[in-house]
């Protein structure tokens, strides 16, 4: 069985947006009991991560670390067509992931106790982000 659904959301600024519940709902709607869920982000300045969902300071620390690796406005970067956060956003997305695959067990995402699925917005301004969620498996 194959089930596919678009998932669109509006980000507010740089940072993470938890999408675990939305992806889980798509898995439930698919009727798949055992299989795989793939989430693919259709952008080059945001990414997808599986991260701890209990303590928000983990994601805040992650953001600070990314800012140290790829700071906005670094004179090293020539690609600044959309502002000083343009190239840093691309670097952050390349170092992370545009797609995640998560096992499905008994009709649900087989995430660990403290794991959540997040869209990580790398741009300073709000953006509309689009993902394709593909669920494959047996009912």
Question: What would the keywords be for this entry?
Answer:
alpha+beta; 3 helices; single chain; 139 residues; three-stranded antiparallel β-sheet
Description:
It is a single chain. This protein is α+β, with helices and mostly antiparallel strands and 139 residues long. The chain is built from three helices and eight strands. β5 and β6 form a beta hairpin. The longest helix is centred in the middle third of the chain and has 14 residues. It starts with a strand and ends with a strand.
Query: Total number of β-strand segments?
Result: 8
Mean pLDDT: 97
Structural class: alpha+beta
Biggest sheet strand order reads: 1-8-3-5-6
**Number of separate helices:** 3
Helix content range: 25-40%
Largest sheet: 5 strands, antiparallel
Unreliable stretches: none
Elements, N to C (H/E): EEHEEHHEEEE
Radius of gyration: 16 Å
- Beta-strand portion reads 35-45%
- Euclidean distance between termini CA atoms: 7 Å
Principal-axis shape: elongated
Helix and strand layout, with pairings?
Blueprint: E1 2-10, E2 15-18, H1 20-30, E3 34-41, E4 46-52, H2 56-69, H3 86-95, E5 99-105, E6 108-109, E7 115-121, E8 128-138
Antiparallel strand pairs: 1-8, 2-7, 3-5, 3-8, 4-7, 5-6
Can you give me a brief rundown of this structure?
The chain contains 3 helices and 8 strands, in the order E-E-H-E-E-H-H-E-E-E-E.
């Amino acid at each position: 069985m194959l089930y596919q659904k678009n998932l669109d959301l509006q980000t507010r600024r740089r940072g993470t947006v938890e999408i675990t519940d939305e992806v889980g709902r798509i898995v439930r709607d698919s009727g798949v009991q055992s299989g795989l869920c793939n989430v693919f982000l259709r952008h080059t300045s945001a990414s997808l991560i599986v991260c701890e969902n209990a303590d928000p300071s983990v994601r805040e620390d992650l953001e600070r670390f990314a800012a140290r690796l790829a700071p906005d406005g670094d004179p090293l970067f020539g690609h600044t067509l959309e502002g000083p956060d343009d190239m840093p956003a691309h670097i952050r997305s390349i170092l992370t992931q545009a797609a995640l695959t998560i096992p499905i067990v008994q009709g649900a995402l087989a995430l660990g106790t403290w794991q959540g699925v997040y869209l990580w917005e790398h741009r300073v301004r709000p953006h509309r982000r689009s993902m394709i969620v593909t669920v494959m498996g047996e009912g």
